[in-house]
Amino acid sequence: MPLHAEGETGFYDPAAFTRPGVVRVPEDLPAPRIPLSLPVKVRRIREGAARTLLFCTAVSAVVAVFFIFLFLAMNGYPIFEQAGAWHFLAGDVWNPTGMTPSYGIFPLIAGTLLVTLGAMALAVPFGIAVAVFIAELAPPRVRAVVKPAVELLAGIPSVVYGFFGLIILTDWIRVSFDVASGETWLAGSILLGIMALPTIVSVSEDAISAVAQTYREGSLALGATHWQTIAGVVVPGALSGITAAIILGMGRAIGETMAVIMVTGNAGVLPDPLWNVLSPVRTLTGTLGIEMGEVAVGSSHYHALFGVAVVLLAITLGVNLLARQILARVGERHTATAACGVRRGRRNVAGPYAYAVAGTVALILLAAATGVLVAAVVAVLLLVAAYVRRRISPRTGQKIAFGLLYSAAGVVLFVLGVILFDIVYNGIPAISWEFLTAPPSNLGRAGGIGPAIVGTLYLVGGAILFALPVGIGAAIYLQEYIREGRITRIIRAGVDLLGGTPSIVFGLFGFAFLVLYLNLGVSLLAGQITLGLMVLPTIIRTTEEALRSVPGGIREGSLALGATPWQTIRRVVLPPAVPGILTGTILSIGRAAGETAPILFTAVVFSQRFLPTSVMEPVMALPYHLFILATSVPGARENQYGTALVLLTLVAAVYLVAIVVRNRCQQSIRW
Asked: Residues in domain ABC transmembrane type-1 (predicted)?
C-alpha cells in the first residue's frame, strides 16, 4: 500500500499506520514527505503573502501614533529644556515675539478649559435630553427626521460653523450685551456646544437603547410612570455610556481649531474676573493655527509651538483613553444598575433628588474653589428643581419633563434650521457658472472658486486612495486572522489614539515629517497623506464592525468546502460587508472634505489661477479659501456665503451619492 493512500493531503500521516490492517513503520524512521504540487505551493505562498500584508496594514495605526509622538516630542523638547517645564506650563504670559520672549502657556490652557466647560454646560443637558427623546419618546416618523437632522450637524464642516459664528453669533452677542466685540469666550462655548451635540446625542442614544426592554416593562409593571421609568431605570442603566458620550464630546471640543480661531478673539489673557464670559480668550489649538504659519523653522518660538502641541495631545489622549475605559465597562455596569432600579420601582422617585443633592454639593465646592458664581447659581437651581419635583404629583412631573424633552429637540432642530437657512439664503445669489469655474480675483472679492473645488476633490480623492486599502486591510487582520489578545489590544489602542488626535496635530505632524523631514514641501501629496492618516481610524472601525456583522456560519461553510482563509474572506466575507465599508468611506469623505487644520501647513494656498500639474505642487481648497475670505478679506460677503454654500453642498452631495450606492449594494445582497 502506498504511503499516501491513507489521505489526500500528500503528507506522511503517522496516525494512519496505527489502524488495523496497515503495515506499521518503526518510530525511529524519519517521516517521508510527499512533494507538494505546484498549485498547492502557490496557494500557500499567496496565503502567507496576504497575511503578512494585512498585518503590515494593521500595525500602521500604531506606527502612525508612534511617529506623531516622536516628531512632536523631538521638536517640542528644546522649549522644555530652555524655558523649564514648570515655567512653560504655569507661566502666565505668552509673548514669544516680544523683546523679552515669554513662553507661559497657562492662559492658553485656561482658555481651552473654560471654552470647553462652557460648551459642555450647553451640550450635555441638550444632548442627553435629545438622546432620551429619540430613544424613548419619538414616534418612528419623528425619529426618522430628528436623528438624521442631528447627524447632519456632525456633517457640517467646522469652518462653516466658524463662519456662521463670526458673521451671526458674534454680532448677536455684541448687540445683545452691548460690548465692543462679540468675539468672546461665550461665542466659542456656544459654537463648540453645537458642534459637540451630535457626538453626545449619538453615543447616549446608543447607550439608552442598549438597556434591556425587560427592565422598562418591570418598572411599569410595578406602577412607575413612564418618566419615572426613564429617570429611575433607563438613564441609570445607561449612565456609563452617557458619561463616555460626555467625555467624547469634551474631546471633540478641546481639539477644535478653526471655529475657535474665528469667534473667541484670540487674546492670550485670563478673563477678569474669571467668570466673565464676555472676555476674549485664546485656546491651545487656536495658538497653533494662528502662529505656526508665520514662525521661523528651528527658532525658540517654533519649538514652543510644538511644546503646545505636546500638551494638547496629552490632554486629548487622556480624555479619549478615559472614555475608552468607561465604554469598556458599560456592559458590566448597566445591567446591575438597571436591575437595581427595577427592584426599587416607584420608590426610585427619590433617586433624582439624591443626584441633585450630590450635584449641588459638587458644584458648591467648585464655586468655593474657583470663585465661579455661575456654578453656585446652577447648584441652587438644581436643588430648587429637586425640591419642587417632590411636591408635585408623578403625572404632573411627567408632563413637565416630557415638555422639556420636546422643547430640547425643538431647540436643536431650530439651531440647525437657522444655520442652514442663513447660509442657503445668503449664498444662492453668489452662485453662477462663472463663480463655480473661474479662478478668484481681487483677493477673492470677485471671480470664482473653480480651482478650490477641484483642489478639494484632489485632496479628498488622494486621501481615500491612501486610507481605504490600509484601513480595510487592518480591519480584516484584526477581525479575521487573530484572536483577542495583547497584539489586538495594542493595535486597537493605537487606532483609538489616532482617532482621538486633534486635527491640528495631524497638520503639525504633516508639516514636521512630510513637508520638512521628507522634503515634500507644501504640496498636494503631503496634504493627501495627512488627511489619509486622519480618516484612517474611521475606516478601520466601520469596516471591522461590518465584518463582525457577517455570520460565522458562512465562514465555517466556506472553509469546510476546502477554501483557504483568504479565499473565504475575499469571496464570502467581504461582499456582504460592502455596505458597512461604504459607510466608513462616506464618513471619511465627508470629514476630509470639510477639514481645514490638517492642510493648513501642508497643502494649500489661498489663490491660484491654474490647476496643479503635479502632486508636488500646492492646491487651493474650499475650507481654507472660506477661512481666509472670512477672516482676512473685508468686502467679500457675497463670495464668503457662496463659498460656504458650495462647501456645504459638496459635503452633502458626497454623503448622498455614497448612501445611494450603499443602498443599492444592500438590495443586491438581499436579492
From this structure: 109-323, 453-658
Structural domain count, the chain: 3
Residues 310-365: pLDDT tens digits? 999 888 888 777 766 766 665 455 444 444 444 443 333 334 333 344 344 444 44
Which of 269, 299, 304 is CA-nearest to residue 288? Answer: 304
**Which three cell numbers, joined as nine digits, stand for 339?**
436591575
Task: State residue 397 phi and psi, 5-degree precision.
Answer: -60, -35
Alpha helix positions (H), 256-350: 258-263, 284-291, 300-328, 330-344
- Could you tell me if 119 and 214 lie in one domain? yes
564 within some domain? yes
**Is the same domain home to 314 and 418?**
yes
CA distance 318 to 255: 12
Same domain, yes or no: 398 and 365: yes
Does some domain include residue 75? no
Containing structural domain, residue 308: 84-430
**Residue 590 scores a pLDDT above 70:** yes
Tell me, yes or no, whether 284 and 350 share the same domain.
yes
CB 468 within 8 A of CB 510: no
- For 283, which DSSP code? -
Q: How far, in Å, are 224, 232, 271, 347, 389 from residue 343 at the CA level?
A: 11, 11, 49, 9, 22
CB 593 within 8 A of CB 462: no
Question: What distance in Å separates the CA atoms of residue 512 and residue 534, rounded to the nearest whole number?
Answer: 16
- Taking CA atoms, 546 is separated from 62, 170, 317, 574, 582, in Å, by 22, 43, 26, 9, 10
Q: What is the largest CA-CA distance in the chain?
A: 103
Place of cell 472614555: 323
Nearest Cα to 191, choosing from 182, 202, 204?
182
Cis preceding-peptide flag for 618 (omega within 30 of 0): no
Cβ atoms 448, 440 nearer than 8 A? yes
Find residue 94's DSSP bridge partners. 103
- Distances from the Cα of 428 to the Cα of 157, 163, 393, 423, 547, angstroms: 18, 16, 52, 8, 43
**CATH assignment of the domain containing 95:** 1.10.3720.10
